[in-house]
Every structure is written in C-alpha cells, then in structure tokens.
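INTERNAL TRANSFER SHEET
From: sequence group
To: structure group
Subject: Coproporphyrinogen III oxidase

Please process the attached sequence and return the structure record in the designated field. Keep the field labels unchanged so the import script can parse them.
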Amino acid sequence: MVDTLIIGAGISGLSLAYALHQDGRKVLLCERQERVGGNITTGKAGGFLWEEGPTSFTPTPALLKLAVDVGLREELVLADHRLPRFVYWKGQLLPVPMSPPSAVTSKLLSLSGKFRALVGALGFIPPAIGNHLSQQGGEETVAQFFKRHLGTEVAERLVAPFVSGVYAGDVHQLSARSAFRRIAQLENVGGGLVSGAILSRKQRQQQKPPTDPSLPTVRRGELGSFKEGLQSLPKAIASHLGENIKLNWTLTELRQTANQTYIAEFSTPEGSQQVEARTVVLTTPAYVTAELLHNLAPNASIALKEIPYPSVACVVLAYPDDALKFPLKGFGNLIPRGQGIRTLGTIWSSSLFPGRAPQGWQMLTNFIGGATDPEVGNLDNEQLVQAVHKDLQRVLLKKDVPPKAIAVHLWKRAIPQYTLGHHLRLAQINQDLAQLPGLYLCSNYTDGVSLGDCVQRAYDQLPIINKQLSIINDN
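Return from structure group:
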C-alpha cells in the first residue's frame, strides 16, 4: 500500500513525486522506459552536447526552486537575454522586435502592418462574430484571434512561426482560448490587449508572493539549462527518490476497490507486480492515458483519444564556422509557413549556450514536421538530414558543406495540440474523473506544454492530493 502511485517519470511525474516525498508521503513512481525524463533527451559525444527534445526552459520560480532543492544551483546556465530572435521572411533573417522602439523600426512589418497592430492592441477591433464562429462552437482559432486583434501581418509573420516553434502546430486549427489562454483572456479583462495586460499586471502584482531570496536572480527573456544539459534535472530528482522509482514497469490494468483505493497491475522484468494505492496520478500522454482509463472512465478515454499529437523530428547538425553566412549570435530563427522552407525553425545551440560544440564548429538544432507537415513521420534519418540541410543552405549557409549529423530523433507523437474544442474535451474528462475520487491527471495536454508549466502543474496538484489523503485517513 502506498499513499500515491504516479505513472510516468517525465518531468511532471518526477516533480510531483519529489514534492510528495518531501512532504513525507509514501510514493511510488513507475516508468515503462528504462530511464527517467520522458522527452528530455540529452546527448554528449565528440565535444558536442545536444538536446533531442526540449532544448531549454524559461526559469520560472517553481522550476528554479526545484532545481535548487535537488542540488543543481551551481549547474544552472542562463543564455544572454539580449540575444536576438529572428524570423525568416522573403529571403531575409529579420530580428523579432522585443520592445516598442524596435517594433517601430522593425523591417518585419510594413508601416501599415505596424499601424494596424497598434490600433488593434489599443482595443479598436471588430467583434468576434460570423458564421465561421458559430460553426466553431463560438471559438476562434489562433489565426482568427490574432488577425482580428493585431492584423494579418502580425498573425502571419510573428504568431504563426511562434506557434510552429512552441506547439509544432497549425494556427488554423489551434484554439486561441486554449493555446493562448492568458492572452485571450485580456480582451475580457480590459476590452483590448494593452488595457487588459495593464489591468492583469496590476492584479498579479497584488497577488504576487514575495520573491524567494534563496533562488538565483534571472532577467526577463533569459532561457536556462544546465552545464551537462537538461537531463541533469530528471537525474537529480531521481537520485533523491531512490527506490521510490521503478523503471521498466508497464501499467497493464488499473481498477478501483470497494474501499475506494486502486489496484495497479504491472508487467516488470521480475514478472507481474501488484500495487495498491490510496491515490493515483497519471502523467502519461493523452493517448496512453486513454487506454489506461478505457474501463474506469470510458467518456474521458474517448475525449483523450481526440487530442492529436503530430510527428516532429529533431535534427541536430554541425558545420564549420566558415560555412555560415555570418557569425551566429542569437537564440535562433523561426520560419513562417509559405516561405518555401520545410524546417519549422533552428536553434543556434552553440550560440545560445557556449561550450556545446568544439572550437571552430557551430551546432544547429532543427525541428521539422508538426501539424502542417505530417509526411515527415514517413521519412528516414538520411532523408530528414538532407531536407534540413537543403533548408539551411538557403537560410544560414554560404557554401555547400556536407553537414556533420550529430543526432536525428523522430518523435512520432510529439506535442499535444490544443485544437478547437479542447476546453470541452477537458470538461468531459474532468466530469468523468469526478466519479473516481483519488484519481488525477497531471500532464502537458491540459494547460501548458513547457517544462515550467509541467513543474508548476505538479506543485499545484500537491495540496489536492494531500487533501484527499487526509480525507481517507479521517475515514
């Protein structure tokens, strides 16, 4: 018997297990793979250090606290917040405006595009009406929302490539209220994006907890990692959990008992194993969770199966310094669809975190595929390398030098898509799970896909689980 059984040792499961363990709860964390970390995959060879999944994180207070608590304070590295981001538009790499003055002088938007964005940001926007909205259940897609608020140029040249970079998604399919929840709410708060942002900021300042002096100081716009890569975090958490983690344990059945506990059956290297738990948390992807809940919560299972996960390939290539058009100094570049480039974007990894490539080399982490290019899932490694190399010849390379292929990782089911109707699917899931006290979901298909979102969501789950355990103990 354990207090909490957690399925899935990605960053969500690890963060929650660590928090419960620190609270003195008896926790068991089970993972079907032979390692912890989920999609966090760090490689190291030949003087190169690279990532094949998430490449960095926004240093949120929750994530920083977790890193410090597990002993990684001195391992933390932060990219220079002044490094520019670029968008490839009409054959040029143009810096993304990061401040009002830079927006005025930016070549990424035309004069009329800038004026349209300003007018819309101030709240002079058309209402969200029309037959298309009725057909979409009253929801706007990301493309529709930002086009209405900020104009076509911002939607195409800034928002669309951002969506490709974060979700590998399609702005014409994603729901604005789900994928950009905080921004979409600004209209309701203040009538426009600027006024809504001002009012929301005032509210957050009033509710903001005091700054934790024990945490490292970070600047707005900085991205973080660790000296030995992102995998340092899951490994450090796992070292604190010790025998509370079981690897190569595959959950085959989950059922509820008459005593409102749960019995979990596992297939393990030692044979079949059984665990009884007072509470259970599933941190697995939606399609895995759907199978696990097929009998316990059939309606939730159906809704979970409807959440799409497109294929995305991470292709890490390296080139000699003299093969590039210019010295790389920046975070990287994103590429809007319609530019004749298949690659979604490129992170200038050796510029972002120095020391990750041997002297004289530049390492580029490229992402290709996503919701707008499902055929990528059918390509082999060599085809993926050649597709990305062909794109880099147009964007970054000044001469045709064969790439050094560092790594190719095709994620067949990569990032959950918050498509139209996502909030209704979540409502159905929550309604079904309300009949199963003590069973919870904690994964990135609910309200945020970043590493910081995953850690914060796990911490938010802690008081809910502790409350349920208290109720069980009282009974």
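Handover comment: The chain has a mean pLDDT of 94. The chain has three domains: 2-35+59-70+227-308+419-474, 97-207, 312-411.
Transfer complete.
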